[in-house]
Every structure is written in C-alpha cells, then in structure tokens.
Please model this.
Amino acid sequence: MQEIPRRICAPLSAFLVIVLAASCGDGPTDPRNGGPGVRVMLGAGVTDTIDTEPLQQLVVEVRGLDGKLTSGAIVWFLGQPTADTSHRYEPAIYVCAVTPYTCGFTYESFTVDTTDDKGQASAFVRLGHVAGRAVIRITVPEFGMVDSATFTVTAGAPASVRASTTDIELDIGDSATLSGRVFDRYGNLRPEVPTLSAGAGTAVTVDGATDIVTGLDMGTQWVFARYAALADSTSVRVMPIGRLVVWWAPQGVVRLVNLNGTEVSNTIVSQVHSELGVFPRFDATRGHVTLHTGDAYYGGPPRTVVVVDTTGALRRDIGPASGFTKIVAVRQLADDTVLVVGRRVVDASSTVNGLWLVDANDAVTLLADLPGMLLGYGGADISHDGTRVAYLALGPSFTSELRVLDVSNGAITVLEPNARSPRWSSQGDRVAYLVPSGGYTDLEGFAVVTNANGTGRRDLGSAVFSVGLAWSPDGKYLLGRVGYGSFLLMRVSDDASVLLRFRSPNGGYVDYNQPDWR
Model:
C-alpha cells in the first residue's frame, strides 16, 4: 500500500483540535500514534489508464477527538475538478457508493459513507477521462477533519490523429512545418509521433525527416499525418506570388491585396461607386491603377475616370466636364494618355459610343466608333497597348456578340455569338471571357479563352464566374470571383485550380470584385 504525504495536526484539547484541524485547510489530518484524524488506509496512489476501475476500494479510517476509532461518523468523498483547463468540464475521477453496480455510468463525483465498528468508511473509485493527477477530497464534517487521496490517470489506447492545422496556403517555393499528434478516445495526448506523407498530386513535397512541406507548383494537395491505421489530413493550397487590385463594392473602396490574402487593409481609393462597376486596372508599369466611378452616392452615373498610383497619394480625375455620360472600360497607356470606352456627348443633339483618347490636358479625341456597342456591366476591355478593343455588341439574335476591333483599320472580328466580360491577356494574344451559364444572374458565366483572331477556342472547366476576370502578367493563370468571398485561380494550360478566400482583419471573409493582377 502506498500512502500520500500528510500534514499532521496534533491534539491538544478538544477545542484546540477542532481549531487546528480547520487550520490545516485541504491537507490531511491523519493521526500519529493513534491520535485524532481521518487517514487513507487503502486504495490511494493508484496509477492506471482512463476509465479503469481499481479492484481495491478507497478505505479511510476515522479516529475521534479522543484518538479512538469512531463508528457512525459521516465521511464525505468528493472528486475534485481537473486542473487541465482544456478538459475543464470532463470528469477527472468518479466516486460512488459501494454497491453492486459499476461506477461511472453517470457523472458521479460525490458520495457519503458512515464508518463501521472498525472506524472505517469506503467508496468505490473509477478513474475519469482526463490524464494527469486526480484528487478525491475526504472530509469528516463532524470533527472538521480533512484528507485527500491522489491518483495518476494515464492516457488510453491511441484512438485518433490530429493534424496541427486544417488547411494552409503556400506561395510557390515557400515552406511550412506541419505536424500531427496522437490522442486517446477522450482527447488525451499520447507520446507517439505521427509520420507525414503527401497525397496524390504534384503541388507539394514532404520531407519526412523534418516534417517540412514545400510548395512546388500551383494546385491543392492533401498532406496526411498517420499513426498505424489512424490518420488526419491538411489541405495545402499552393499558388504563385501575386498582387491584386480589387474593388470592395459595399464599402466603396479599391484595395491592394496579395494573392495569398495578406495585406487586406491597403486601401488606395475610397468612396468609389458605379452602377457599371469600377473595374480597376493596372497600367503597363503596374505602378498606377485606372478605374471609373460615379457620383458620391451609390448608383450614380459613372462619369469620372480616376488614375491613382498604388500608394494612393497621386491621383488624377477626368470628370463629368469631359463629356462622358457612360463609361464601360478604361486603360492608361505608357505615355500617360488614357483610353476610354463609353458614350460621350459630341454636340448639343448627339452622342457617340466609341473608343476615346484623353490626353494630359484632358482633351478628348475619338479614335474609333464601336458600332452596335452595348453599354453593359464589364462589357469591354482595351488591350494593354491600346491597339484593339474587345467589346459586346448587339448580335443578330439580340445576343451580346463579342467583337474585337482593330483600332488602326477598323476591322472587326467576331469571337463569340453570346458572351460577357472580355479581358485581354497582357501579351495581347488572347482574350478570356464568359459565356452565360443561366445561373443566378445573366452576368455570370463559364470561362472561355480564345486567340485574338478567334482561333483556338477552349472552355476552362465548369466553374461559374462573376463578371471581371484577371490574367496573370505572364499569361499562365486566370482569376475570377466564384461566390461570396471566394476566388478561383486557374492555370490556363490544364485547368488546374485553387480556391482562394480573403479574410477580413475583423474575422470572416471579404467579398471582393473585379480583380486585376500586377
């Protein structure tokens, strides 16, 4: 039998014994040389696994104030809460009356027994769910006596593996250390260490010796933490390094964010609204952003072109005095002139839909008519060198026909009989656009890529995008909004994709729109 350490309150007188017993607090008051107190005789100091029912009952002995064994004394056995805050509401130990049934079917942490003619009281014990030290406090209220019995609970058999994180994002070339842990059925940590391995795919590699996961190529791949037949997984999304400009419509702000979702608070323009969208676009230097906005109130006519540097410090406004009544697309060229697709008043009685050039002095020149142009949401895009315009026009079947206009000679090429949201690649060799999906709005659609001359048309998967696609500067990837707070990044060569979400600093996700990629 192993007994726990005890503090001793020696008897002086009946009154003094009670005072001293109380002053001992939660410490034991077992007697020396037959002195008064309560003492654990059997059943304490057990070390065993969770849920174990020791064969030996917990037996205590009570001696009264005269030091003699006392029968008929009421003894309280009270299981103490665990000190492990992660298991605060789980039973550390069960204490039950000595009866034929098994202890622990309900949360029994308290029982009472009366000492027999040998001065002994007993309780049945079952170790609880929480690994570590477990304590039963023993009191005899009649005499103010206190003692305690301690037990050591060890974790049960392995029952689960938990990965250190549920999902992570890596830039191509970056690394992260992942890990896993083994737990018993109640979530107690065990000493075993799981091994890491990569699931099917080529996006990541795993170093089994160091548990370092490295992003190799764009894609999503699972990394598994395994122990015996137990496993858990972490989703690893790998993406190229990128910087986006986006519009947050409800807040009326244009921001710069990294492709991996960081730096979500870098606002460069505020109070920008437009019924036709603002569609921010980088210039060729990637140092300026051009967009079109409306009046100060949401839903106002989009009559102003804004050119701002990426710090937000330098800004140029081409306002209503320029004569534009509708603006669909804008692009700043290398010489700082600005091209505008939209409607403009040319005299007191007429307006023209076309491609316009605005010079450094805000003088406006018509470069090309855009016959049949539809002044719709995201319905045009200007090539990065300004030589061509992809725009939507009223087709023969009252559809939105996608056309490409060569500014130098006025030649028109039809790319698609019914399309939405054309976007030029930076190289000017391809156009990405949407074909209507018949979804929630007529503006949503499936992504398509084709060469600028109409050859090589290819559908890109089955994802439904909102208006406003973005090409990567190298032309390898396309990015677009696919739902609230969600973007899909696709590799054009093989349709491989990664889902991206942008977190708000205050929690939740931010619903950005109309990205462009620096």
Q: What stands out?
A: The chain has a mean pLDDT of 89.
